[in-house]
Amino acid sequence: MSAYRRFSEEILAMIGKRISVKNIDGEEYEGDLSGIDENLNIIVDNLSINNNNAFKIIMNGKFIKEIKLIEKPFDLKKLASNLDKVFPGLIKLREDIGVIIVMERFKVTEKGIIEGSGITAERIKKVYDETISAETK
C-alpha cells in the first residue's frame, strides 16, 4: 500500500470524529471533522465554546499546522477477533470500508449491525455489546 493511500485512508477515517486543529498562527479549534478535500481544506462542525461561539469553520489546508484526533478510535480489529471466536472462519474484516462481514450475510460497523437480522444477528449484537463494554472500562 502506498504511503499516499495510507494517509488518505487515515484522514478519511477521521471524518465524523472529534478533532483539534491548530493553524499556523497557533490558534486552536476543537470540533467534529465533517469534511475534507484533496488540498486538506477542512470543515469543522460543533465547535467548542472557546472558539468565539462559532458553530462551524472552514479552514484552508495551507494554513493548518496540525490536526489531532481527540476521540479514541473504534477498534474494528478487536471486534473482528471477538466475532471470530464465536464464528470461526466466517469473518471478513474490510478495514478499507470499515466493515466486518459475518457469514457473507451480516455487516457490522463501529455503529453496530447495519445489515442482517434474526438469531445470528442477535448473537453478533451480543458480541458487539460485550466488546464496547470492555472498551469503556
Describe the structure.
A hairpin with a 4-residue loop joins β6 and β7. α2 packs across α3. This protein has two domains: 3-69, SH3 type barrels, CATH 2.30.30.100; 76-136, 2-Layer Sandwich (TATA-Binding Protein), CATH 3.30.310. The chain contains three helices and nine strands, in the order αβββββαββββα. The protein starts with a helix and ends with a helix. It has helices at residues 3-13, 76-86, 119-136; strands at residues 18-23, 28-36, 42-45, 56-59, 64-69, 91-94, 99-102, 106-109, 112-115. It has 137 residues and is an alpha+beta fold. The mean pLDDT is 89. Strands 4-3-2-1-5 form a five-stranded antiparallel beta sheet, with no helix packed on it.
Task: List its salient traits.
137 residues; alpha+beta; SH3 type barrels; 2 domains; five-stranded antiparallel sheet; four-stranded antiparallel sheet; 29% helix; elongated
Topology of this protein?
Layout: H1 3-13, E1 18-23, E2 28-36, E3 42-45, E4 56-59, E5 64-69, H2 76-86, E6 91-94, E7 99-102, E8 106-109, E9 112-115, H3 119-136
Antiparallel strand pairs: 1-2, 1-5, 2-3, 3-4, 6-7, 7-8, 8-9
Helix pairs in contact: 2-3
What is the CATH-assigned architecture of the largest domain? Roll
Element order: H for helix, E for strand: HEEEEEHEEEEH
Shape: elongated
Rounded mean pLDDT score: 89
Which percent range describes the beta-strand content?
A: 25-35%
Helix content: 25-40%
Rg is 18 Å
Short description:
Helix content is 29%, strand content 33%.
